[in-house]
Amino acid sequence: MPVTEKSVKEVYTALLPQTMVVADLGCSSGPNALVFVSNVINAIAEHSRNDFNQLFRSLEQFKRSAEMDRNGDTLPPYYVSGLPDSYYVRLFPRQSVHLFHSSYCLHWRSQVPEGLEGKREVYLNGENMYIAKNTPPSVVKLFQEQFRKDFSLFLRLRHEELAFGGQMVLTFLGRKDEDVYSGDLNHLFGLLSQSLQSLVVEGLVEEEKVSSFNLPAYGPSVGDVTALVKESGAFEIAHIKLFEQNWDP
Ligand SMILES: C[S@@+](CC[C@H](N)C(=O)[O-])C[C@H]1O[C@@H](n2cnc3c(N)ncnc32)[C@H](O)[C@@H]1O
After folding, report:
1. C-alpha–C-alpha distance, residues 58 and 171, integer Å
2. What is the pTM of this model?
């Protein structure tokens, strides 16, 4: 059984098949054949545990510790659910949510900036994966336009879902200065691009793969965010604050 399990895991990891086909050659006519099948299924289930399953498994523990915090007092009744979809689509019924929260997510775009994802545009942003000093202004525009599209869509969708008087608390990565070429994300992803470039030099990664790779990310300035919220006409900003992260604690 351990040998079979190891094989199953190795094949699954190497191929990540959408559907995994397993054949038992010369199977038994009775339960033995099903024991094998059940081992395979369990090995895959064990190996492909997803984040959501993990999350819901931790709910019991959460309930116990929440009750402990309240010294045994009962909590208000609550119900936890998970929606496996992107927040760039409608997720909830109209006016059904009172508070939205999002932490360290909204700097991710719904896709690589439109116009920068095809093979033909391979060298538009050189070896960079994000906005760098030598990124042409036309490419910067594509990153900004993708942010404008995504964030406006996000605001429109959440506005439909939020109950009247509801609020959102959003924290995400951005940049301190208005200058789109300078910011922690530019620096961080610049270092990552350099690392990939060294792998190219060492012949470990194909140059074209690095040149054609751009991140679906954008770190907006406070001004970028404020302008889009105003433009949406859907929300008022009650509080907006920039805080700096210590990269070297
Ligand atoms: C850095 S983690 C933040 C996790 C957590 N909120 C926290 O603060 O620790 C970013 C998460 O956003 C998710 N994410 C990125 N784009 C998304 C999208 N369009 N819809 C839903 N989730 C998304 C990623 O899968 C990832 O789980």
Report:
1. 24
2. 0.81
